[in-house]
Amino acid sequence: MIKLKNLSLYLDGKTRNLEISELEVQPGDFWYLAGRNGSGKTTLLEYLGGLSTCYPQARFEAESTENSYKKSFVVLQNIDSPFFYDTVANELSHSLIQQGGEDSTQALTTWAEKIGLKDKLELPVRTLSAGEKQRLILGIALISRPDLLLLDEPTAHLDSLGSDLALGIFREFQIQGGTMMITDHKTREIKGQQGHFLGLEKGGVVSSCVWNGNTINSALIERFGLYPDQHAGSAGNREQGESVIKLESFGICFENGNQLFQDVNLELKRGQWIHLSGLNGTGKTTLINLILGRIKQSAGTICRKPGLKFGYLPQNFRYFAQCDTFAEEIEFIKKRNINSLNSDDLIETLGLKHLLERDPLYLSRGESQRVFLFLALLSRPDVLILDEPASGQDFQSLTAMMGVLDRMVAQGMALILVSHEDWLGSYADTVWEIKEKKICSDSR
Questions:
Q1: Cα(417)–Cα(400) distance, rounded to whole angstroms?
Q2: pTM of the model as a whole
Q3: What's the gap between Cα 297 and its chain centre?
Q4: If you count Cβ atoms within 10 Å of the first and of the last residue's Cβ in the chain, which end, N or C, has fewer?
Q5: Residue pair 361/388 in contact by the 8 Å Cβ criterion
Q6: How many angstroms separate the CA atoms of 95 and 89, rounded?
Q7: What's residue 146's pLDDT?
Q8: Geometric angle at alpha carbon 103, from 100 and 105, rounded to 5°
Q9: Interhelix angle for 130-143 vs 160-175, to 10°?
Q10: What pLDDT, in 10s, does the model give residues 165-195?
Q11: Residue 24, Cβ neighbours under 10 Å: how many?
Q12: Are 85 and 195 contacting, i.e. CB atoms less than 8 angstroms apart?
């Protein structure tokens, strides 16, 4: 299906970032592609799927390349780009018609049920949560019946129910003879799978093996930034200060009459770490937008301490850099913020030193998130809000991020961290869980 020999990637057109001496993918294969942030996983998927890379100066060289597949489908980490129609039903219907299938109610309902969106068919795609959009993309991919399915962090935005749903779809695809290559830092996607492990480090393939799907060598887990089976954090010694945001008896009622929250009371204090959890579509991002003042509540009051400075890293962020390099961007922000942080220590801890002369627009997703977090911290926000910061992060980078955040919270910053990774709640003082249109607050 795919046969490569002596493939090299030059992201800047000059420096070799990836080298693969030989790669052969057979029909029906399952490949798990592992590597730390910036090792070239996404770029390799783009190349194998026939997509143009986002790096304008990038070039590939190969002694020989053979592709015998008829159709490939690449699911990347950008959850907004693949949509063209207004509603979930129209997106799925278009895909069914494109494949020569019937645009029938039965076919539409069957696929919507498979991806857990049966009750969302008439909703505008733009109103879906990130996890619901991820499931819609996976449905469109499977409807297209590709020979080769390439998945880049396919469960990054999904809750546990959505992840189980996706893994079931992947297994069905394989049973039907499909070929799949998946990148992820979590190993649950490959538990029970028979296939090939391909480990990347900056510069090339350093490990390739066949495994039985039950265990992965602990040395490989650490080397390639994978999540170990057992992991947890711990909340540091923090003193909470004055209240900075207070929500009293608030609620949200949309124009269609749908009530999201009702009679909710919450408080955020300086030096407090909040872990915000809830299933896809329960309103986590809506709550964040409410706190930020981007939308208005329909009932109750929201009191914010005057002069609060917010930092915000959204789930599907796009950073528009002002300068050509990360180093220049740092100086640009420092000039605008007299009391900015001492950056050297943070750069080292977050593993960003080697990126200083790189253009912020052309980094991997994991690298971009850490750069964006660093720039947000640089201006010393009173309140920092992170929406799914774990997505795209290798384990070592994520634990380094948590360590930095712990220090900043101990110094008085208030933090709200949204995540489907329940173990990240072990770093928090308080958990806000959204369930059945209510928000439960549990102090640790």
A1: 15
A2: 0.89
A3: 28
A4: C
A5: no
A6: 10
A7: 93
A8: 145
A9: 10
A10: 888 888 889 889 999 999 988 877 666 677 8
A11: 12
A12: no
Residues 6 or more apart in contact with residue 118 via CB below 8 angstroms? 109, 112
Q: ∠ CA 291-116-72 to the nearest 5 degrees?
A: 105
Residue 101's pLDDT band, with cuts at 50, 70 and 90, is low
Structure tokens at 280: 């896809």
Instruction: State the Cα–Cα distance between residues 118 and 127, nearest whole angstrom.
Output: 15
Amino acid at 200: L
Instruction: Give yes or no for a contact between 158 and 129, defined as CB atoms under 8 angstroms apart.
Output: no
Q: Which residues, 6 or more positions from 40, have their beta carbon under 8 angstroms from its beta carbon?
A: 9, 17, 18, 200, 202
- Residue by residue, what is the 3-state secondary structure of the chain? CEEEEEEEEECCCCCEEEEEEEEEECCCCEEEEEECCCCCHHHHHHHHCCCCCCCCCCEEEEEEEEECCCCEEEECCCCCCCCCCCEHHHHHHHHHHHCCCCCCHHHHHHHHHHCCCHHHCCCEHHHCCHHHHHHHHHHHHHHCCCCEEEEECCCCCCCHHHHHHHHHHHHHHHHCCCEEEEECCCHHHHCCCCEEEEEEECCEEEEEEEECCCCCCHHHHHHCCCCCCCCCCCCCCCCCCCEEEEEEEEEEECCCCCEEEEEEEEEEECCCEEEEEECCCCCHHHHHHHHHCCCCCCEEEEEECCCCCEEEECCCCCCCCCCCCHHHHHHHHHHHCCCCCCHHHHHHHCCCHHHCCCCHHHCCHHHHHHHHHHHHHHCCCCEEEEECCCCCCCHHHHHHHHHHHHHHHHCCCEEEEECCCHHHHHHCCEEEEEECCEEEEEEC
Owner of token pair 């204090």: 269
Q: Give residues with Cβ within 8 angstroms of 82, minimum separation 6.
A: 137, 140
